[in-house]
Amino acid sequence: MTLVIRDLCVARGGLPVLMGLNFQVAPGRALVLRGPNGSGKTTLLRTLAGLQPPLSGEIGGAEDRIAYAAHSDGLKAMLSVAENLRFWASVFGQRDIGPALRSYALEDLHDRLAGTLSAGQKRRLGLARMLVTARPVWVLDEPTVSLDADAVLLFARAVRTHLEAGGSAIIATHIDLGLEAEVLDVTPFRATAETRAGASDEAFL
Amino acid sequence: MTALLYRDLMLALRAGGGFGLGLAFFLIVTVLVPFGVGPQSELLARIAPGILWLGALLACLLSLDRLLALDWEDGTLDLLATSPLPLEAALSIKALAHWITTGLPLVVAAPLFGVLLNLPGPGYLWLVVSLALGTPALSVIGTFGAALTVGIKRGGLLMSLLVLPLYVPTLIFGAEVARRGAAGLETTTPLLMLAGITAGVIAVMPFASAAALRINLR
C-alpha cells in the first residue's frame, strides 16, 4: 500500500509551517527529507505518525502502518537492553527480538541496563526498536544522531533490508546513507508571512 | 497490555521510589498526628478514620507527578501513542500500576497505622474496605491530572490544584465509611456512594485522560 500525501499543510502551535506538500512513498521506496533547522521536518513527521492532526490535506495509507522514531528513544534506564526491546515487541504484538539485536550488534549488550549505555549504543537500541514493530512504514527523525560511522552502516543496511522486504521509509537526515532514495527538500514548501495571515489563532485560545 | 503493566511494576520495584515514598509519607503523618493532637486517646480515636484517609490521599497525591512525567521525558508516551495499544487502555494500565504500587500498600498498611491512632476495634475492617474501594478512584483521577499537566515543567503544583477538588467526594464518603464503621453504625449508604464514584471514575476518566494527553502530545 502506497503512502499518499495530498495537499498537506502541517502546523506547529497553530501556525502553519509547511504547506502544499504532495508526495507518495511506494512499498520498497525510501524518501529522504532535507531542509534547514526549524523548517518543519519534525512537525511533518509527527503529523505523518498521527501524533498531531494536519491543518488541511490528506494522508492516505498511514493508519496503523507507521513505526515512528524521534529524537528520544523511549528507553528505560532501569531495564536491560533485552527487556526494553521485549517490551516494545510485545506492545506491537511481536515476540522475537533476536534479529533486531543482531542487526544492530547489540547481542553482547543484551543484559546491560539501558542507563549504562553510551549515547550511540542507546541510539542503536532505539533504532532496533523499529525492527520489532513489524510495521511497514518507518518514519525516522534524524536517526543517525550520535551514531559512529560503523553504526551508520548498520543502520543503512537495516533500512535496505526493510525496503527489500517491501517496507518503506521516510527519513529526515542530513548525511548520505548510500540509499537509493528520492530526496524531498521541504524549503520551497515553507509557509511565509503572507500565507500565514489568515491562519488559525489556535495558539492564543 | 500486560507488558506495560509488568514494565511499570518492574520499574517501580527497581527504581525504589514507587513502593516506598507513599508508604513512608503515610507513616510520617500517622506517627506525627498524635504528637500534634496531644495525649488524648479519646479524641485520637474519634479523628483516626479521617486522619488515616487524609494521609492515604496525600500519600497518593505525592507520587502522581512521576506517573506520566518520566514516560514523557524519555519519549515513551510519543511511541505509545503511535503503537497499536489504544491510549485509553495504556492510561488505564498505568493507573492500575500506580494503584498496585501506591494504593495497595496503603490499604495493607492502614490497619497497622490505625493502632498508632487508637482506632476503635470495629473500625479496622471498614477502614480497609473503604480504602480498598476508594484508592483506585484516587489513582484513576490522578492519572487524569497527570495527563493534563504532563508537558509542563514543575507541573506538580498545578496538578495538585486540579486533582484535589476531584478527590473530595472520594474523601468524604471514604472517611464516612471508616468513621461510621469505627462508631459501630450502619455503613451501607456511604459505602455504596464510594463504590459508585470509583466505578464511574474508572469507566469515564480514561477517555478524558487520553483526550488530554493527545492534546499535550501535539
Explain the overall architecture:
The complex is a heterodimer of chains A (205) and B (218). Chain A is an alpha/beta fold and 205 residues long. Chain A has one domain (28-54, 66-182): P-loop containing nucleotide triphosphate hydrolases (Rossmann fold, 3-Layer(aba) Sandwich). Chain A has helices spanning 41-48, 81-91, 98-103, 119-131, 149-164, 193-196; strands at 3-12, 15-25, 30-34, 56-60, 66-69, 137-141, 168-172, 182-185. Chain A is globular and about 55 Å long. Chain A starts with a strand and ends in a 9-residue tail after the last helix. With 218 residues, chain B is mainly alpha-helical. Chain B has one domain (2-217). Chain B contains nine helices and no strands. The radius of gyration of chain B is 18 Å and the shape is elongated. Chain B starts with a helix and ends with a helix. At the A-B interface, strand 5 and helix 2 of A face helix 1 and helix 5 of B.
